[in-house]
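Quick question, first post here. What does this chain look like in 3D?
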Amino acid sequence: MGSQQHMWLEKDLASVNRTITPWVVVEMHRPLYNPDFFDWLGPMVSEGLQIEIEYLLYTYQVDLVLSGHYHSYFRSCGGLYDYQCSNGGPTFITVGTGGSPLDDDQISLIPNQYTEFYDKTNWGVGKVSVFNSTALHWEFIAVGGNITDDVWLTRDH
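> Answer (accepted):
Ran it through. Tokens below.
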């Protein structure tokens, strides 16, 4: 808190005119939430990000947070804030499946209630389709074209 980057993020989120920009999507490299227990540093970085910026995502009603870093696919429950689903926060999605080797099957998962979908067997990409100011559709498209996960996000503006 108080860094130039933190101040920039807060100012940027505060300046969004939801009449002109009804959907706010934040993209970042490291995820705030992820079920992989890849190494001891991963959860520590995620928790640090939660302490530093999660309240900003909540305060400014960010709808979707996209990240990478982990070589797997993850989608949280809707409204995730402070480890609680349906709590006014965004949906968090990690898409780290662009071509590097996927995470090892031996990697254990952190027990949690916030994982809606997890896949470390398919390479793929994400696709966002904004239909209007109240409906956004997310799809994870595996190599070969199969849609292995999708979710509709809705807002009442």
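The two ends are 30 Å apart (CA to CA).
The mean pLDDT is 87.
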